[in-house]
Design a protein that fits this description.
The chain has 2 helices and no strands. It is mainly alpha-helical.
Amino acid sequence: MATEVVLERIWVLHDKVSDAIHDISRANYFRSVSGLRGQAVPPEEGGNEEAEEGKRGFVLVKDFTSKDCEAAMAEVRSLGAIRSALEKVEEQLDFLNMIHSQQEAERSAAIASLEESRLILAKRLTHHQEKRL
């Protein structure tokens, strides 16, 4: 019961962290793109021919650098590590739940076996006392 509450909390936190990563990534993408608007690469330099017709495109460069971008990427990496840790905690809780269920089943089986042994012993004692009389 308590682990279910913890798992639910982990899922909520995981979703919030994922949303934050998405928001930061999207904001960073738009920030990097807004700096590149209007800078279409001419066809002779590897750009597309549509740039000549007034249609300007852009390419998001992976190594685009700015202080905001670097800070955002550091935050995304940090949030990614937190999300990964939450996933590992979830896996461990699932594993512990499985072990707990197995132990419960083994405990129930052991109690049933003890009860059966107790009943057999009681019958034998009764039978032995009847023989003595």
